[in-house]
Design goal:
This protein has 4 helices and 5 strands, in the order αβαααββββ. It has a 3-stranded antiparallel sheet with strand order 1-5-4, with helices on one face. The protein has one domain. The protein is α+β, with helices and mostly antiparallel strands. It is 35% helix and 12% strand. The radius of gyration is 14 Å and the shape is globular.
Length: 105
Amino acid sequence: MVLKSLWSVTDTNGAFATKLRLAMSSGQEMPDIVVLGTENEQLAQDMIDSGMFAEAGPLFDKYASDSWKQTMNQDANVWNKYSLDVKKMGIPRTAVWNMAPCSLV
């Protein structure tokens, strides 16, 4: 799998969220993976609702380690914020895994 970087933004005064919102609204090509912090939960939901991102659940099921899957299964609600019509659109952060709060693919 090859991931490409389309752009990077120094996140000063919400510049990252602004760049993503502008890219979505203008129909620009979006990055393969977007990593968001907890301060961007509304942005994550807007991105999911945009329909511009693929479902992340099958990738998580295929590539996540067994221990990561077990951690995610400890709380059935952990996926709620990042799901659309029962599809897992983002991979949420857990306290056990020091990862990004949400990654959308």
